[in-house]
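[job 4471] stage=fold_predict status=RUNNING
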Amino acid sequence: MSAAKLDAETEELKHKTVSKDLRLAISKARTAKGLTQKQLATQLNMQPQVINEYESGKAIPNNAIIAKIERALGAKLPVDAIGLAPAGCTLA
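[job 4471] inference complete, writing structure tokens
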């Protein structure tokens, strides 16, 4: 497939990105703990850009990163909202 075709492609070839529910949940939990994106990223040993991408909805969902964020924030994030697990399932 050519680059032009990929650019013109609609939903079929696009990566799934984090949902609005997940973005808001991360942001709310982080601010409730009084952390900046940079402080949370440092605590998780990640680049601040990773947290920014999750909160802005640009990130491709990754269960390992979401689980780390959950543990650091002490909050249950809406996993089913990103389409990685059916509603009611939890990360093991």
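[job 4471] summary: Confidence is low (pLDDT under 50) at residues 81-92.
[job 4471] exit 0
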